[in-house]
Amino acid sequence: MELTTILFYLFSVTTLGAAAVMVFSRNIVHSAFALMFTLIGVAALYVLLYADFLAATQLLVYVGGILILILFGVMLTTQGHSFSFKINSVNLIPASVLSLATAVLLIFAFTSTEWTIAEVSERDDTVYELGMMLMGDYILPFIIAGVLLLIAIIGAIVMATRLTATSTEG
Amino acid sequence: MEFSIIEWLSDPGLTHFLIVSAILFSLGLMAVLSKRNVIMVLMGVELILNSANINLIAFSRFTELSLDGQMIGLFVIIIAAAEAAVALAIVLNIYNRFKTINLDEISLLKG
Fold this sequence. Notes:
The complex is a heterodimer of chains A (170) and B (111).
Chain A: H1 3-24, H2 28-48, H3 52-76, H4 92-112, H5 127-135, H6 139-169
Helix pairs in contact in A: 1-2, 2-3
Chain B: H1 5-9, H2 14-34, H3 38-62, H4 67-98
Helix pairs in contact in B: 2-3, 3-4
């Protein structure tokens, strides 16, 4: 058994187990921390797929940014102290039937298709090539993504300031 | 050609990563459908985006897609960051107005 195989199963079990804890936990803070382990496991899977730059980006953006935002959202929207962090599930049976059907369908489609595997050479690092592509073929999406981030930041600031203005008025 | 499960399991290839992403997708779908807390729904959306990203990067590793897949994955991460920021600002506004983040109770179109 190779080391890559052991690592793949280790990281897959971490990712999927933490995702299951996230979905089925009844405490939203536990869910957020389980989401952190899921995101770290996904970053490790990226490393196994030779995507080192994307793994670093995943750690920085998701674990360092989005997860902190989600935790702030949890803190700022809990009501009182008594039933604060509890969350309840609805539609449990239709939701589980639908997601199980999706999983079975997707796995069947993935395993029954004959993928044409191309033997790519093992990469040392992808940062140089990704940078050249970003400044070459992908320059337009790169600029559009920058503008999108700017618009998102401005929109979030506008909404947040209106939030504080209304809370001081009322 | 002899096909053995043990042999298949001991050599992780494209299909293994795709199966991991499929299970991750269905867990995210489960979270989106069965939770009524807005923040739980957002976390489910993050799971779905991550599973799509695993797909893209697995294809970029094992097929002719090569680095283009990683580039698309990078843009997915960027857009997820923008989405999370705007969505949480909206959630805070909703909480300020309705004093709840239960999706079933936020049913007013006109504020």
